[in-house]
Write a structure and sequence with these properties.
The protein is 35% helix and 14% strand. It is α/β, with parallel strands linked by helices and 266 residues long. The chain has two domains: 129 residues, Rossmann fold, CATH 3.40.50.1980; 115 residues, 3-Layer(aba) Sandwich (Rossmann fold). It has a four-stranded parallel sheet with strand order 2-1-3-4, with helices on both faces. A four-stranded parallel sheet has the order 6-5-7-8, sandwiched between helices. The protein is globular and about 60 Å long. The termini are far apart.
């Protein structure tokens, strides 16, 4: 007897986009409010809260057979609650890419889990091929080292640890995020807050204001310039630098464009 078609709940915005890219959009029965790409494919898919504020009762009513989570973006307590559902709980598909190369394993993981759906294997192969080409083109060789402060929040200023996906993406073009620290696999330490008087701020060469999750204004850009007086301050596309999965293909090209524009601060 063949398996029934999957009913997929994705609680990870970038993986939701990947699910659609693999031809599984018609099997999505739940998403978070932050799962916004591709918009045309998600209009009719019910929202079940945010990545860290999942409405578990609504999610259960939607009867997913698979729930896709991320070890950094979703709460461990929510995953445990789903696993404790009576009857036959859904399969938890746990993801945790921390480097752009990990996207290949992520694509293979979903292709394996949903191998029974026609067309998934072929789409996964095509996407993996495109990703391998972009990875081969994007490396630090011959690029000048640049000290970077990647800001994701204000009041307080918050940045990224070196073991995050964002930091490792930037490292591909020899841009080293400051400060030099790791935050561990999960938790708040991965996104440290700044006091604003750290001595190393004077050595930062570029400040990158991410387009998400905080909406930085011109006033914030001016304040960031005061924070790092010797740096060039730019706004950057946070989705292209932090979303993994299908968006990583375009993200790597965007990364090279940033590197090619690595001129000294004015």
């Amino acid at each position: 007897m063949s398996e029934p078609p999957p009913r997929i709940a994705s609680l990870v915005p970038s993986v939701t986009e990947l699910v659609v890219a693999l031809g599984l959009g018609g099997h999505l029965v739940a998403r978070t409010g932050f799962c916004i790409h591709p918009a045309d494919a998600l209009t009719a898919v019910p929202k079940v809260g945010g990545t860290k504020t999942v409405n578990l009762a609504k999610l259960r009513r939607l009867a997913p057979t698979h729930v896709i989570v991320n070890l950094d973006e979703n709460r461990k307590s929510d995953v445990g609650a789903i696993e404790a559902w009576t009857g036959k709980p859904p399969e938890i598909v746990a993801t945790h890419p921390i480097d752009s190369d990990d996207n290949l394993a992520l694509i293979a993981q979903l292709a394996t889990v949903f191998a029974g759906v026609p067309g998934v294997a072929e789409r996964a192969a095509a996407l993996s091929g495109a990703l391998r080409r972009e990875l081969a083109l994007t490396g630090p060789a011959g690029r000048p080292m640049c000290r970077v402060l990647y800001l994701i929040w204000h009041d307080p200023w918050m940045t990224v640890a070196r073991d995050t996906y964002i930091s490792r993406m930037l490292c591909r073009i020899h841009w080293l995020t400051q400060p030099d620290l790791e935050g561990g696999a999960t938790g708040a330490a991965r996104y440290p807050a700044l006091a604003g008087d750290e001595p190393w701020l004077a050595d930062v060469e570029r400040v990158l204001l991410s387009s998400e999750p905080f909406a930085f204004s011109d006033a914030h850009a001016a304040a960031a310039q005061v924070l790092c007086p010797n740096a060039r301050v730019d706004r950057v596309d946070g989705e292209l630098l932090s979303w993994y999965g299908a968006r990583a293909v375009a993200g790597l090209g965007y990364l090279r464009a940033l590197a090619d524009d690595n001129r000294p601060a004015a």
